[in-house]
Amino acid sequence: MTTPPPPQGQNPYAQGQPPQGGNPFAQGQPPQGYPQQPTAGYAPVPPAQPKRKITFKLVKNVVTVVVVAVAVIGGYIASRDDANTAAVGDCMHRGNSSSTNPDLEVVECSSSQAQYIVLAKIEGSFTSATADSKCSAEAKDFQYSYTESGDGSDFLLCLKDYSK
Q1: In terms of pTM, does the model score above 0.70?
Q2: b/e per residue, 80-113, with b = 16+ CB within 10 A?
Q3: Which of 26, 65, 97, 100 is the most exposed place for a label (fewest CB within 10 A)?
Q4: Separation between Cα atoms, residue 25 and residue 40, nearest integer Å
C-alpha cells in the first residue's frame, strides 16, 4: 500500500484544517487562550487599585501626631517669656514668691505686671556672692540679682525695681 502524495501547496504534516474563514488573526480576534493584543500606540491600562479604608488605627495615629505637635508648639510659645530670653532694658514680672525659683517672665514695660527692669545680663555661672559683686561692677544701682543655670545656658540678671 502506498500513500498518495499531498496536494500541491499544502503542508503534509499539518494537524488538521484551519477553522472555516481562514486565518483566525485576519479577523482581528486572537483565538481563545491567546493574550489580547494592545491597540497600536497605547499601553494596556492596569486595573484600578482598591481604595484604602480609613481605620481606627489610622485616625488614632493622626490624632496622636497632632496632639504632640500642639504640645511642643505650646511649650515653645510659653517658654519665650522666660528669664533666659530677657535682654537689657526688658521689664520682668515675678510669677511667685519663692526665693529659690521666682519664675521670672518678660513682660511689656507698659503692662501693670512690670515689677523689675533688667540692667545687665551676664553669661556664665555665678554663686550668690560672686553674682552681687559682678552686678555691682556692671550695674551700679542694681537691687536684685537672679542667676539661672543647668538649662544649657548659665547667666546672671541684674535687676532693679521698675517704676513708671
Answers
A1: no
A2: ebebbebeeebbbbbeeeeeeebebbbbeeeeee
A3: 100
A4: 15
